Amino acid sequence: MAFPDGFIGHGLKYSASKILAHQATREFLKKNRPNYILITFHPTFVLGESLVQQSAEDIDGINALFWQSLFSEKPRIPTAWVHVQDVADAHVKTLEVPVESGKEFLLSAPTFPWEEAADFVKTQYPALGCKLEPPFEGRWRVDTTAADQALGLKWQSKETMIRDVIGKQLAFRAKSAQIYIQRVGT
């Protein structure tokens, strides 16, 4: 299949790779019937504080797409988000509860309109200069019933996800500004 150039093409390639990996996993289970439990997680857009990010400029992945969305008129990702801690918790929970092999779990906090995210950012971080302007098109629907019931997950709120990403960026910016002030002052 041919993919378009640019951001859309990269997104389509990423999505195709996930679909192919999922199909390969299902085929492997069907063909090999391994004597161990193999489950799959399918997280939506994973947001939250990055433990590997070293500077504001190092922001990447979904955090970067979220951050870039704040300074665009229209968002770059839908609001089907899951907190990185919820993904980690799901991994731990599968070690604590019986889960049958082949089980698939969609991991996502409840979706919501981008208007709510934009309003929250503009209210809580007015100096940030969020440029998002409604109306925003589309909204994904997610069904996390399997993860909710089998793993008993309690999803982080949209506010927590937003605060974690913005808070990390602002902390890096403040640290950079402090270093600059110290250098200029000496």
List unreliable stretches of 5+ residues: none
Rg from C-alpha positions? 19 Å
What is the terminal-to-terminal distance?
58 Å
Taken as a percent bin, the fraction of beta residues is 5-15%
> What is the element string, with H for helices and E for strands?
HEEHEHEHHH
Tally of individual helices: 6
- Relative helix content: 40-55%
Whole-number mean pLDDT: 91
What fold name goes in the CATH topology slot of the largest domain? Rossmann fold
CATH class of the largest domain: Alpha Beta
Identify the CATH architecture of the largest domain. Answer: 3-Layer(aba) Sandwich
Number of domains: 2
Strand order of the largest sheet: 1-4
Q: Tell me the quaternary state.
A: single chain
CATH superfamily of the largest domain: NAD(P)-binding Rossmann-like Domain
* Structural class by helix and strand composition: mainly alpha
Biggest sheet character? 2 strands, parallel
| Strands, total number | 4
Shape: globular
What does this 3D model show about the protein?
There is one protein chain. The chain contains 6 helices and 4 strands, in the order H-E-E-H-E-H-E-H-H-H. It is mainly α. A two-stranded parallel sheet has the order 1-4. The radius of gyration is 19 Å and the shape is globular. The N and C termini lie far apart (58 Å). The model has no long low-confidence stretch (mean pLDDT 91).
